[in-house]
Amino acid sequence: MRHLTLIPVALVGSLALSACAEKPDETVERAFQEVNVVDENDLNDVMLTVADPNEAVNYFSRSTKQFPNRIDLQRGLALSLIRAKRNVEGVAAWKKVVGMSGATSEDKVALADAQIRVGEWTAAEKTLDSVPPTHETFKRYRLEGMVADANKEWTKADSYYETALGLTTKPAGVMNNWGYSKLSRGDFSGAERLFGQAIRQDPSLFTAKNNLVLARGAQRTYSLPVIPMDQTERAELLHTMALTAIKQGDVQTGEALLREAIDTHPQHFEEASRSLRAIENG
């Protein structure tokens, strides 16, 4: 029994010493601060991923007004503006981030991405030139390839796209970019091959499907490729192929493809119907 009474006495002594070393108010305040930091980080992540982009913009706009020197919040605002497709504002936001203490090479790459979105190709090239060569990322090389394309520097573009492919586990997007580069320079068979590879990597990538039809149509191959597509996609691809045929002077083929597109679409296909009326009216 004597030993049992010693335990609470020891505990009381321990608590007393703790109280002497630290004021209770300070302990509680620090605990709340730690909880708030965790909650805020979680909320920031939610805003950058699953939240509505414009809601995220409002959230980070309020936060940056309260804490203007926090680069993580300024970065969140810039990311949210791009997600919301408010690209002009996004460029300004990324410029602010890049000018802050603690800015990284990845921030500069993000600025270049935003500049490309608004068509500022020369500025994007200058921004990418300021990124150290040791910063070797998929996004950096994909953007370098796009800038080289804009400058018609095809050898550079091929090199950058090839490097980018080796730095990602999701290559469909860059394959589509590279394919469009080949298409724009007249290498239709090379473009067709890359679009096909992009679709195999991501069967849901409709842009690559549409580009594949353009590449085949440019070679006067007016049959749809064997790729995954639903009924609506099939109708839209037939419409793309029809317009390609018409632009190349194969008007009768284009007209037949337009009729097939209209018949295939599960709903009224106004765009194809309008194209068909234009042909019928001469």
From TrEMBL:
SMART domains: TPR. Keywords: Signal. The keyword Signal applies. InterPro entries: TPR-like_helical_dom_sf, TPR_rpt. Residues 1-21 form the signal peptide. PROSITE patterns: PROKAR_LIPOPROTEIN (PS51257). The keyword Signal applies. This is Tetratricopeptide repeat protein. It comes from Sedimentitalea todarodis.
